[in-house]
Amino acid sequence: MMELPKCPKCGSEYTYEDGTMLVCPECAHEWSADAAAETQEDQLVVKDANGAILSDGDTVTVIKDLKVKGSPTALKVGTKVKNIRLVEGDHNIDCKIDGFGAMKLKSEFVKKA
To answer: Which Pfam families does this UniProt record tie to the protein (predicted)?
Structure first.
C-alpha cells in the first residue's frame, strides 16, 4: 500500500485519494497528487561528516572541538546532542546542549550516533 502524504494545511494523516486529487477529511483541503510528490522531493536533506543522512530527532556526536561565542569553554569532541531539529541555512542543526543551552551547529562537525 502506498503511503499518502499528510495534509499540507492542517497536518492530518487521514488523507485519501479522489481521482487525481488528494483530500483531507478534517479540513476539506484538496491538492494534486503531483504537487505532493514534488514537495516530498524538495525536502531538506542534511548529511553529517560521514555522509549519513540526518533527520529530525536524531542523536549526533560532535567530532571537533568547537569554540562557542560568548562562552569561556569550548564544545568538546564526543559531546552527544540529542533530539536535533533540521533547519535551512548555513548552520543547519538546531538543538539544545546541556551546559550550553540552545545552539545552532553545522552538520559538517557532527556524526550520527
So the answer is: YjdM, Zn_Ribbon_YjdM
Domain enclosing residue 10, as ranges = 1-41
For the question of whether the overall pTM of this predicted structure is more than 0.70, the answer is no
Is residue 48 domain-resident?
A: no
Place of cell 543547519: 92
Could you write out the DSSP letters of every residue in the chain?
-PPPPPPTTT--S--EEETTEEE-TTT--EEEHHHHHHHHHTS--EE-TTSPEE-TT--EEE-S-EE-TT-SSEEPTT-EE-S-EE-SSSS-EEEEETTTEEEEE-GGGEEE-
Query: How many angstroms separate the CA atoms of 97 and 101, rounded?
Result: 5
- Are 79 and 108 in the same domain? yes
Q: How far apart are CA 109 and CA 96, in angstroms?
A: 16
